[in-house]
Amino acid sequence: MKKRFTEEQIIGILKEAEAGLKVTELCRKHGISDATYYNWKAKFGGMTVSDV
């Protein structure tokens, strides 16, 4: 199954939230659910692109 977002893109999306964008706006902008965002945050939170 092809993934829609690469790990680098996911980390970039998480960085947008850290920069102050509201989670609901961020999810709407990228077409993801709140649950997906929080799953990504649990898995990739605190990582940088170089960690991937």
From TrEMBL:
GO terms for biological process: DNA transposition. It comes from the Bacteria. SUPFAM superfamilies: Homeodomain-like. InterPro entries: Homeodomain-like_sf, Transposase_8, Transposase_8_domain. One of its GO terms (molecular function) is transposase activity. Pfam families: HTH_Tnp_1. This is Putative transposase. It comes from Oryzomicrobium terrae.
